[in-house]
C-alpha cells in the first residue's frame, strides 16, 4: 500500500489557490469596473499614486517575507540537534531595533508626501464645475442638477459632459428627501473608472469630483453595505460631448405633456388613483412632486431602472409593478395589488415618458 506523504493535500490546495490568483491576472477585455484602467483626470491622479505606492509595498512584502522564510529554514530544528542544548539566547540588539524602526518610518514618511498632497488636491473644489447633488436612498441614487442644468432630478443615470469636472455633493437620507428627521443609512458612491469611493453619511455632506475624458457609459455601484438590496444599488455615469450634454439638459429640463394615446391616458389617471403620485414626481403632471421614489419625468429614456438592475422594457416594467419586492428585496416600492389591466395601462403611460 502506498503511504501518502503528509502535506500532499496542503500542497494541492496551495497549487489551486496560486493558480486561481495567477489566472485572475490574465483577465482581459473590457472590464466595466476596472479601477486600474482610469478614464478621467481624477481617476488618473489616484492611479498614479497607486503606481508609486504599490511597487514599494510589494518590495517591502517580499523583503520581510523573504527574511522570515530565511530565518525559519536556516534556524529550524534538525534531527541531530542535542535537545538539552538551548540555542544562543539574544535579549536585544539596539542597532537592529533602531534600523527596523527607522527604515519603515522613512518609507512611510516618503509615501505620505505624495499621498497627502493628492488628498488635498482632490478635495479642492475645481474651477467652473458642473454641480450635482447626489442622494443615496434605499436602494437607488437620486441626482439633482444645479440651476445651470435646469434643476433636473433623475435617478440612477448621471449624465455629465466630457472634459469638465463634475463636483458632487453627496448625502444619504431615508425614505423622504429633504426631511432631516428621516433616518438613512451609509452608502458609498463608486465609479471605478472615474474616481475612488466616497461614503454618503446621513446628516453630513460629503463632496467629491469626477471627470470623464471620453464619451461613454461608466458603470458604478454602492460600495458600502446598506441593507437587503445593497447589491442591487447600481448606477451609470453617462458622459456626453459638451454640445450633446447641453441638448440633453434642454430636452430633460422641459416638463412632460399629457399623453395622447387612450391607454396611456388611462395609465396617467391610475398614476393618481393608485397612489403612485404619493411617492413619484413627474414634471408637468399636476400634483406629482413627491421625492420618496425616483422622479419619473423621463423614465423611458433610462437604459435601466430599479437600482439600475432591470432594462427598461415593457415586460420588465410590468413585472416590477406586479411585485417589486420579488425583483429587488427590501425596495420601498409597495406591491399595490394592481390588476393586469391597470399594469398594462401604467406601462403604456410610463413608456410615453421620454
Ligand atoms: Cu447603498 Cu450599499
The CATH first-level class of the largest domain comes to: Mainly Beta
The proportion of strand residues reads: 15-25%
Flag low-confidence runs: none
**In CATH terms, what is the architecture of the largest domain?**
Sandwich
How many strand segments?
12
Strand order of the largest sheet: 3-2-1-5-8
Q: What is the H/E string?
A: HHHEEEEEEEEEEHHEEHHH
- Morphology: elongated
Helix content: 25-40%
The number of helical segments is: 8
Q: List all distinct small molecules, including ions and cofactors, that are bound in this structure.
A: dinuclear copper ion
Task: Describe the protein.
It is a single chain. Helix 5 crosses helix 8. Strands 3-2-1-5-8 form a 5-stranded mixed β-sheet. A 5-stranded mixed β-sheet has the order 4-10-9-6-7. Strands 11-12 form a two-stranded antiparallel sheet. Helix content is 36%, strand content 17%. It has 8 helices and 12 strands. The chain is of the alpha+beta class and 354 residues long. The model has no long low-confidence stretch (mean pLDDT 91).
Please sum up the structure shown.
By secondary structure, the protein is of the alpha+beta class.
Question: Keyphrases for this structure?
Answer:
354 residues, alpha+beta, Immunoglobulin-like, 3 domains, five-stranded mixed sheet, elongated, binds dinuclear copper ion
Topology:
Blueprint: H1 8-24, H2 41-74, H3 94-123, E1 130-137, E2 140-145, E3 153-155, E4 157-161, E5 166-172, E6 187-190, E7 198-200, E8 206-210, E9 216-222, E10 234-240, H4 242-252, H5 262-273, E11 304-305, E12 310-311, H6 314-322, H7 324-327, H8 340-351
Parallel strand pairs: 1-5, 4-10
Antiparallel strand pairs: 1-2, 2-3, 5-8, 6-7, 6-9, 9-10, 11-12
Helix pairs in contact: 2-3, 5-8, 6-8
Amino acid at each position: 500500500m502506498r503511504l501518502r506523504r503528509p502535506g500532499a493535500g496542503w500542497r494541492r490546495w496551495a497549487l489551486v489557490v496560486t493558480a486561481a490568483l495567477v489566472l485572475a491576472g490574465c483577465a482581459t477585455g473590457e472590464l466595466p469596473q476596472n479601477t486600474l484602467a482610469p478614464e478621467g483626470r481624477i481617476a488618473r491622479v489616484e492611479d498614479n499614486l497607486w503606481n508609486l505606492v504599490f511597487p514599494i509595498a510589494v518590495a517591502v512584502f517580499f523583503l520581510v517575507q523573504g527574511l522570515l522564510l530565511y530565518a525559519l529554514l536556516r534556524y529550524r530544528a534538525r534531527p541531530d540537534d542535542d535537545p538539552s542544548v538551548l540555542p544562543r539566547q539574544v535579549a536585544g540588539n539596539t542597532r537592529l531595533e533602531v534600523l527596523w524602526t527607522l527604515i519603515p518610518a522613512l518609507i512611510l514618511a516618503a509615501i505620505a508626501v505624495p499621498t497627502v498632497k493628492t488628498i488635498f488636491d482632490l478635495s479642492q473644489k475645481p474651477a467652473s464645475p458642473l454641480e450635482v447633488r447626489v442622494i443615496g436612498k434605499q436602494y437607488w441614487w437620486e441626482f439633482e442638477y444645479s440651476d445651470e442644468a435646469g434643476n433636473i432630478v433623475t435617478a440612477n443615470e448621471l449624465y455629465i459632459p466630457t472634459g469638465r469636472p463634475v463636483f458632487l455633493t453627496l448625502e444619504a437620507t431615508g425614505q423622504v428627501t429633504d426631511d432631516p428627521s428621516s433616518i438613512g443609512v451609509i452608502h458609498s458612491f463608486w465609479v471605478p473608472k472615474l474616481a475612488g469611493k466616497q461614503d454618503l453619511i446621513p446628516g453630513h455632506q460629503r463632496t467629491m469630483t469626477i471627470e470623464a475624458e471620453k464619451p461613454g457609459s461608466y458603470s458604478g455601484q454602492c460600495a458600502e453595505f446598506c441593507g437587503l438590496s445593497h447589491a442591487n444599488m447600481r448606477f451609470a455615469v453617462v458622459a456626453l460631448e459638451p454640445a450633446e450634454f447641453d441638448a440633453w439638459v434642454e430636452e430633460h429640463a422641459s416638463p412632460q405633456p399629457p399623453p395622447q394615446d387612450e391607454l396611456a391616458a388611462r395609465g396617467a389617471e391610475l398614476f393618481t388613483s393608485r397612489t403612485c403620485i404619493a411617492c413619484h414626481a413627474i414634471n408637468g403632471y399636476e400634483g406629482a412632486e413627491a421625492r420618496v421614489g425616483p422622479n419619473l419625468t423621463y423614465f423611458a429614456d433610462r437604459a435601466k431602472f430599479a437600482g439600475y438592475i432591470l432594462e427598461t422594457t415593457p415586460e420588465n416594467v410590468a413585472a416590477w409593478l406586479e411585485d417589486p419586492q420579488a425583483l429587488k428585496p427590501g425596495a420601498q416600492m409597495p406591491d399595490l395589488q394592481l390588476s393586469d389591466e391597470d399594469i398594462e395601462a401604467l406601462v403604456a403611460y410610463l413608456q410615453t415618458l421620454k
